[in-house]
Amino acid sequence: MKTLPDFSLEEALFARGARLVAGVDEVGRGPLAGPVTAAAVILDPAAIPEGINDSKKLSAKRREALLAALHDSAHVCVAHASVEEIDEINILQASHLAMCRAIDGLPVRPDHVLVDGNRLPRALTLPATAVVKGDAKSLSIAAASILAKIARDAIMVDLAQQYPGYGWESNAGYPTKVHQAGLQNLGVTPHHRRSFTPVRNILCRGEN
């Protein structure tokens, strides 16, 4: 049973003529606050950092070490969709928007994109494949998951300094007990997603 992502999906695409394959992943669909963040990574087959895995299975120290290695050896880009965009177009479309921005921001254009999940962004015009649980299967997608998580976690730590009491420095905006208590006691901030039910319920209660 395979326990680590590998490079077989990318190698199959190379065999079909692709030269540059990008992996794309997003972080932050579930939180009640903060942006949704995506990363795109094109690994160099001759210089893949050791130890790449789904970001959720790595320690913060290991993720940071891999971040430095990826910046040295791969083409990378991180992008976001804002809280306002999430509320306007819904979280799925906002996550796809962030993915497209990350792909468009790469310094080179990939020949094929491996996208984590079961749907491809509608605006993506490049040849692409959706890979369910891709961060556990593809090294390129796993690498993207690392970059996206580090970038989004850093944003939430910064926001936690501006809006203490919600626990964002440790829960990254997910609906933990601390975060929900903060919502109840402190109210809704400009960085909360108003289209998400727990936030909307508090806003409605305030209006009533």
Secondary structure blueprint with pairings:
Layout: H1 8-15, E1 21-27, E2 36-42, H2 60-73, E3 75-81, H3 83-89, H4 91-104, E4 112-116, E5 128-131, H5 139-162, H6 168-171, H7 177-186, H8 197-207
Parallel strand pairs: 1-4, 4-5
Antiparallel strand pairs: 1-2, 2-3
Task: Describe what you observe in this structure.
With 208 residues, the chain is of the alpha/beta class. The chain has one domain: 2-Layer Sandwich (Nucleotidyltransferase, domain 5), CATH 3.30.420.10. Helices cover 44% and strands 14% of the residues. The chain has helices at residues 8-15, 60-73, 83-89, 91-104, 139-162, 168-171, 177-186, 197-207; strands at residues 21-27, 36-42, 75-81, 112-116, 128-131. It has a five-stranded mixed beta sheet with strand order 3-2-1-4-5, with helices on both faces. Helix 2 (60-73) crosses helix 5 (139-162) and helix 3 (83-89) packs across helix 4 (91-104). The longest helix is centred in the C-terminal third of the chain and has 24 residues, at 139-162. The chain is globular.
Mean pLDDT: 96
How is the largest sheet built, in terms of strand order? 3-2-1-4-5
Q: Identify the overall geometry.
A: globular
Helix content: 40-55%
Low-confidence stretches: none
* Largest sheet data: 5 strands, mixed
Q: What's the CATH class label?
A: Alpha Beta
Corresponding CATH superfamily? Ribonuclease H-like superfamily/Ribonuclease H
Strand residue percentage: 5-15%
Q: Total strand count, please?
A: 5
Count of alpha/pi helices: 8
How do the SSEs run, as a string of H and E? HEEHEHHEEHHHH
Number of domains: 1
Subcellular location: Cytoplasm
Domain RNase H type-2: 19-208
EC number: 3.1.26.4
Catalytic activity: Endonucleolytic cleavage to 5'-phosphomonoester
